[in-house]
């Protein structure tokens, strides 16, 4: 068994052509929805507030108190608006092991029941947040003289988006005849 390496001479043109063959993949922004972009904008506002807080505290040695509050409220917006993205993509935590052992008709009925329970939950959450806004929405923020209802309305918008996306996902499950719970491989690309 020989350990001699065999090398062949490569020209400059061949090297240049290897870069041409590896063209960059096309960027497809069509997979992102409205809530993805809103969550991204809120995330960057939060990131700027955190950076400003860090800069003023450790560089200027005099921190702005309002940056922490703004970052906290932005995080609330990112979580609730971004959760609708998880509903749309069926990426929330779920247990799908039991579906492997159930007969198809039982698994399908249970999956449909879960879709309906999710829709009902988000509908009820919308009602609760709306009532909460009516009760406490006029309070001012601690460090900024703005009402907190902006924060609560972002939570309400997140639940409305989750409700709409859950209805959309339930319709998709009914049309295709299965859900991610029944066939997780179809959603991950592992099922042919």
TrEMBL record:
Subcellular location: Cell inner membrane
Nucleotide-binding found in the keyword field: no
Membrane-spanning parts: 37-58, 70-89, 109-130, 150-171
Keyword Cell membrane: yes
Keywords associated with the record: Cell inner membrane, Cell membrane, Membrane, Transmembrane, Transmembrane helix, Transport
InterPro entries to which the protein is assigned, alphabetical: DctQ, TRAP_DctQ
Entry membrane topology: Multi-pass membrane protein
Limits of the Tripartite ATP-independent periplasmic transporters DctQ component domain: 46-175
Main location: membrane
Any Pfam family hit: DctQ
PANTHER family per record: 2,3-DIKETO-L-GULONATE TRAP TRANSPORTER SMALL PERMEASE PROTEIN YIAM, TRAP TRANSPORTER SMALL PERMEASE PROTEIN
Protein purpose: Part of the tripartite ATP-independent periplasmic (TRAP) transport system.
Subunit structure, interactors included: The complex comprises the extracytoplasmic solute receptor protein and the two transmembrane proteins.
Family of the protein in this entry: Belongs to the TRAP transporter small permease family.
Protein's recorded name: TRAP transporter small permease protein
The organism of origin for this protein: Bradyrhizobium japonicum
Higher taxonomy: Bacteria, Pseudomonadati, Pseudomonadota, Alphaproteobacteria, Hyphomicrobiales
